[in-house]
Amino acid sequence: MVLSKRVARFNRVATNQVLKHVAGWAPGFAMVVHKGRKSGREYHTPINVFRTKDGFVVGLTYGPEADWVQNVLAAGGCTLISRREKIHVRGAELVHDDARRAMPVPIRQFLGLIDVNDFLLLKRE
Description:
- The protein has about 120 residues and is of the alpha+beta class.
- The chain has a single domain, classed as Electron Transport, Fmn-binding Protein, Chain A (Pnp Oxidase, Chain A).
- The chain is built from 3 helices and 7 strands.
- Strands 2-1-5-6-7-4-3 form a 7-stranded antiparallel β-sheet, covered by helices on one side.
- The termini are far apart.
């Protein structure tokens, strides 16, 4: 049960408008700067992100079909703004993992409740 399109629309219109002001500096959040595959337009999408030894992992709560995920995969990377730092990431890789091993334990349990098993791995440049 990945979050529904209705929830995604609400978050895009309401929640993201608040998160865009804190995602670039708040722990556990980042702003993904990516270009549209068709439009070439630059987008800024707030996300929850977790650091790994060589980059970052993102739980795909709206599934791997989300536009921002497809844009990052098509480009092979993006820029993250995390803790007021611009970080260029590459090697965008989609991973399906029912055990959710890349995530911290409490997050793993929450994602299990909403059946999130897809993740985006990003490596620092």
